[in-house]
Amino acid sequence: MNHPINLSGAHALSIDKLEVHYQGITALRGVSLQIKQGEIFTLIGPNGAGKSSLVNAVTGIVPSTGTIEFGEREFNALPSYQRARLGVIQVPEGRRVIAPLSVLENLMLGREALGARKGDVQADLDRVFALFPILAERRSQLSGTLSGGQQQMLAIGRALMAHPRVLLLDEPSLGLAPVIIADVFRAIRQLNQEGMTIFLVEQNARLALETAHRAAVLEQGCIVKHGDADALASDPEVEEHYFGQASH
User: Fold this and answer.
1) CATH number, position 160
2) Other Cβ atoms closer than 10 A to 70
3) Residue 40 — φ and ψ, nearest 5°?
């Protein structure tokens, strides 16, 4: 598991009775979660369980009912850009870098989410380049010509330029080679050790539970298990249903 932290503090993100509906189809059914300040919280589950719907509801990409609170502020009614300006920043599934723009231009776009919050541009770039040195080498290269792993690093770097208070990562290992996955998760652990709160949605259940402090299992739009990541990792049902899938 990741390094121990004090989990007695305030919740960074609270979700209560969240529901998402798409044209008569219910993607989430009364989901409630609390993500604590300074932890890595991971959400695992099968394809189609509603994991991405949950992330997209938190960031306002899809409409939802129920309550979402960031710190002590309820922001259900806020549009996506205002949630981002409060510091709730998403790295989307599939990376979605802007292919015709260079690495540096993609990173600078991340600063648009800052709004009135201030930051030192060079210091922010230095931080990203220290975390992912390959991006410094490729700063002038068009992002569409990067490898999948480099694009994932760029997507995370772009999010970091927005000074996230909660970083939401949607399937960061998807489609990546094992050596690149190791680099990405090393960066995730480092960011958390620096104090960042991280909400990790991940298909590789074993890796996710090894990385996180706490976790939940989402199936058919409902939370069916939750607790310490170590405890879930040793749960026979989790081992049977998810570890075989994650190991292939």
Assistant:
1) 3.40.50.300
2) 20
3) -100, 120
pTM for the model: 0.90
Q: Per residue in 206-229, pLDDT tens?
A: 999 999 999 999 999 999 999 999
For residue 147, what are its two tokens?
Answer: 């490898």
As a whole number, mean pLDDT of residues 184-205 equals 95
- What pLDDT shows up at residue 75? 85
In a domain, 5, yes or no: no
Answer whether residue 147 is part of any domain: yes
Q: By residue range, what is the domain housing residue 127?
A: 40-58+82-247
- Long-range contacts of residues 184-189, Cβ cutoff 8 Å, at least 24 apart: 184/149, 184/152, 184/153, 184/156, 185/211, 187/131, 187/132, 187/153, 187/156, 188/40, 189/2, 189/3, 189/40
CA contacts within 13 A on the Cβ side of 206 = 12
